[in-house]
Amino acid sequence: MSGVALYASVQAPGLEALVGQHAPLVKRIAHHLMGRLPSSVQVEDLIQAGMVGLLEAARQYDHKQGASFETYAGIRIRGAMLDELRRYDWTPRSVHRKARDVAEAIRVIEARTGRDARDAEVAEYLGLTLSEYHQVLQDTVSCRMFSLDELLESGDTVLDECEDSAAPPVEALTQSGFAEALADAIAGLPERERLVISLYYEEELNLREIGEVLGVSESRVCQLQSQAMLRLRARMQDWLDIEQSAAARPKGRRKAVSKA
């Protein structure tokens, strides 16, 4: 019996069976995430972190909340894996800086033109050639500065607030508004970028498989995915600023402000 299974069996009757039944979900999520991570990341580390997330999900799941256990566990598992990845940030600071520069360029260009920023326009704004700009996109693929996983699956906080019946109504409305704004931002992506996001996150295809569907190289899919993420960051910047400001406030103060 594994250490996780032993711990689960001690905690509550039937917990071990629930964890064992959903262990394949951990592996599936881990291999899905590995599709865009560098070779320095070991899938075994993700699986180990994911099993801890699954165990926590099994211990805390409440069917009265309405979500299926698989949905709830998937969020916890991804969250645990992302927490593990955040502990080992392999991305150079220069890559983070360039990613922020691209997002800002997209924001400025789209605010000025009222339409999707084009590759050539962003490259010109940044003083880069088109090939240099595409290389920046390639470099930022593994940059975790912004991703749908971190927005949708960072949900530990969201889940905790949903589970807390005393969560302030204003915060619940903010989370709902954020989700709606994100959905609108995704729907407003250029067609190819939206398709890449859909195939990757909904159909769970890897980058090579998406390239085969689109008839482009895997590196081009990486560029499209990276650009989609940065475009979403640019369009969601106001919401991200609100979330970061709220996260920086002490929890007690957040509740006091919400009640005011």
TrEMBL record:
Pfam families per record: Sigma70_r2 (PF04542), Sigma70_r3 (PF04539), Sigma70_r4 (PF04545)
Motif (Interaction with polymerase core subunit RpoC): 45-48
Protein localization: Cytoplasm
Main location: cytoplasm
Region of interest called Sigma-70 factor domain-2, as start-end residue ranges on this chain: 18-90
The organism's place on the tree of life at top rank: Bacteria
RNA polymerase sigma-70 domain span: 45-58, 206-232
Keywords: Cytoplasm, DNA-binding, Sigma factor, Transcription, Transcription regulation
DNA-binding region (UniProt annotation): 207-226
Coiled coil region boundaries: none
Matching PANTHER family: RNA POLYMERASE SIGMA FACTOR FLIA (PTHR30385:SF7), SIGMA FACTOR F FLAGELLAR (PTHR30385)
Similarity field: Belongs to the sigma-70 factor family. FliA subfamily.
Protein name in the entry: RNA polymerase sigma factor FliA
Lineage start: Bacteria, Pseudomonadati, Pseudomonadota, Gammaproteobacteria, Methylococcales
Gene from which the chain derives: fliA
